[in-house]
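Most newcomers find our protein records easier to grasp once they have seen one. To make this concrete, we reproduce a full record directly below:

…
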Amino acid sequence: MKRALGTAVDGVLAALVAAVVAAVGLFAFSLVEWPAFNSSNVTRALTTLGQVVCIALLATAIVLYRRGTLARLAKVLTWGGLSGFVTVTLGMPLAATKLYLFGISVDQEFRTEYLTRLTDSPALRDMTYPDIPPFYPAGWFWIGGRVGNLLGMDGWEVFKPFAIGFLAVTAVVAYTLWRQLVRADLAVAVSAVTTALVVAYASPEAYSAVIALLVAPALLLAWGALNRPIPDEPDRSTNWGWGAVVGTGLFLGLAATFYTLYLGMAAFAVTLMAVVSAFLNVRAHKTWRAAIPVVVRLVVIAAISGLVALTVWAPYLADALTGAPATSGTALHYLPEAGAELPFPMFEFSLLGALTMAGTLWLAVRTATSRRAQALSIGVVSVYLWTLLSMAATVAGTTLLSFRLEAVLIVLLGAAGVFGFVEGAKAIYQAVGEPSRFKVAAVTVATIGALAFAQNIPQVLQSEITVAYSDTDGDGNRADKRPPSAVSYYSEVDRAITEQVGRPRDETIVLTADTSFLSYYPYFGFQGLTSHYANPLAQFDQRAAAIEDWTTAETADELITKLDESQWQAPDAFLFRRGADGYTLRLAEDVYPNDPNVRRYTVTFDESLFEDPRFQVTDIGPFALVTRAT
């Protein structure tokens, strides 16, 4: 436990350094008026330059660790190198826009809406619907909301710096954990590689990227907690004792508060570890009682993770368990092509393919003799089993969203690839007679490979970066300097609602198909973007039916009666688009198992319904704003 406490202190110091590096870096980037990334190569060149500097810092740290000198300096260089790499790789390409990867489009819309909600208030409330607790884990968004509130920034505006800064902090925390599990120079190398992989393949979903970055060392820790070795098999992860149990429980709890899917996969992997460990113990000791210590440790891990999870899940579970009206939810109703096949990144003809192939070969060769390989192998097997279970679940009319685990698979195989490269290079070195220049050649190949992969990350994220420049931000501007979208009228809509309704935003309900309006301003919505993001307690389908029923009203009196008799609090404002036949709203319905899984359809309100003194109609750009008179 003392070892775990020391690691925690080290992690806090690392996090502080990373936060400072990210804050200074992002602030420095904001001082210059850069050209848009998708129209100039200037920021691309500076990104590469910054990456080279960071990789040089990490290489220097490895050299110092190998020589056994200036260990404290090496640690600080590692902290600066990792956090600086994240900051420059994401921050510089996005330097000329206030938006994060993918802007406010698609999934990023509801994520920004959630962050806006929790920036406005720390209360655990649903991102869209009033008076119900959140269904999506609030951990990342709550922390980001508090950061935004502290800095006096709106949710949409704090999204980018918080996402980058938090990922930078997580990178050094992951290194701190790796440092306790493998020797120092290896910890730097594997932390650098997994950080680069997460930035490249997981960073658009910023809150899940945090868990993806921690999953590999957490699985090593879990294996150390559940599978205690015999005395002649020393392994650093087993030195933690019950600290490993606590650490594993805290990791699973963190996953539960950040991203439910990764919690499910990680818990599945840890449970599989417990089954394997129990089997090995029973076989070794010839008695079922040998499994009891493993079961006890697993139960303690579950208890710790459950307690942490309740910090964000308790309100929703309380409502759900007391019988609050709910629908089954459709969050799992999505099966893209990637979810219908097994991922094999090791067969790609690329640097990623080479790295993951090295990892695959290392796992195949070393799983029988290396506890490190055993832990990562169980993680990899868990991803593939989860994928197969997801395919099987399609028979029951749902999925397990296995396609989103590809980033985790890449990170696990990438970590194994680092160990495979180091051990493979050592084996070749010994086999060819230990030539004096071989180590230099191996280091050269590794360094060039790292630089080549790193500088290609902006290309991997090209479409996500482009959308960040083409979307209109909360100030009504497009970072690529082209004419803004209808979002530029949102500020005028906000002023009109505030003046006409006369209540705070978080006490006002708006019905609109332009749901990105709720991403910029913390109004509550009557209906969400799609059922897949909607809280089951919100009864998405019934709300859609109610909206359609409102359109059948023939008079203002009839409409107002329908609104007042609604089982939910009726909208205080309607933000429509004008159509040929009246005021329109575009709604959505789940059409899984089709891909795409959403069908859009339009409902129309007759304009005459609102030609009544109990309503106020205001034309704002392409919108028709209707508010109920107070």
